Amino acid sequence: MNSKNNDFGIKIKSIRNKKGFSVRQTALQAKMSSSYLSQIENGLVNIPKPTTLLKLANGLRISKTEIFKLAGLDNNYSHELKVYNDEKMINIPVIGEIACGTPIVAQENIEEYLPTIKKSIPNGINFYLKCRGNSMLPTIPNGAYVLIHQQYEVENGSLAAVLLNDNETTLKRIQYQGDEIILIPDNHDPKYHPIILNEDNPGKIIGKVIQMQVYF
């Protein structure tokens, strides 16, 4: 467990408890999921980005200066946030686990939001998935946020998000072969194998990859 993430989480939990807020109440005020807030408090995820820190500050009813100080940042990030506003940003949801039988962007599936330039977003339903693993290297690095436009058909060779039969979501390159859909990893390491979708191993395309954000 990363010590910085753990220390930050302990401080956030302490502030929340002192104010008498529940996890659910704080998450609602911060416009993030309860599960994501719990992960922050337990040091299971990285310290959030500045825009998410501002939402967390709102949820805890503390100042921007205080939340940035807790995160080890300074107020120079306020300039970065002003640029976001000037570019007419909109918040796109980051989807965690997709609950069975719910719409993809249902509130219970949303972990956080990422600001994205509005003019770059197509009409319709759009959401981010966080890439976990190295199967799509070098195209998509581990930890990247991949913007998905919801659609159920994509062109041959496109990168797409696919919901598998066990309710797991994967990002792969699509190849059609007869009645089968082959999900191909971009990483040529032999430990990463194609996944074949057919009647015996069903799955469905839920969206096309249209852009990516990487945070270091």
TrEMBL record:
Family matches, as CDD domains: HTH_XRE, S24_LexA-like
PROSITE patterns: HTH_CROC1
Domain (HTH cro/C1-type) ranges: 12-67
InterPro entries cross-referenced by the UniProt entry: Cro/C1-type_HTH (IPR001387), Lambda_DNA-bd_dom_sf (IPR010982), LexA-like (IPR039418), LexA/Signal_pep-like_sf (IPR036286), LexA_repressor (IPR050077), Peptidase_S24_S26A/B/C (IPR015927)
SUPFAM superfamilies: lambda repressor-like DNA-binding domains, LexA/Signal peptidase
Molecular function in Gene Ontology: DNA binding
Stated name of the protein: HTH cro/C1-type domain-containing protein
Organism: Fructilactobacillus lindneri
